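Slide 14.
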Amino acid sequence: QVQLVESGGGLVQAEGSLRLSCAASGSIGVFTLKPVGWYRQAPGKQRELVATITGTITGGTITYAESVRGRFTISRDNAQNTVYLQMNSLKPEDTGVYYCRIVVRGLEYWGQGTQVTVSS
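Slide 15: predicted structure.
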């Protein structure tokens, strides 16, 4: 079974930073070839894409939501089967549950989510 375990969420003041991690394990296959991404869901809102990175040996191609471009950075450590989300200049509207996602053999798998709360 494919499992994703997120960590790094918490409470932070506006303009602060957090670094989220998502470790993948199980029957992943070749992790470096798999697309991964971060999504978030704010209270009362639908889940939305934050950032994705394609599966390549050299790190992949990255896409960001316009609301986080220039503030967030997605990266991956293929040797550790881990994807990161560095979040800088955080705003209260960034508050929500953040989920990581991977696609393996045509199926999507989600982490349990980690809460990020940004105070004003």
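Speaker note: The CA atoms of residues 8 and 114 lie 7 Å apart.
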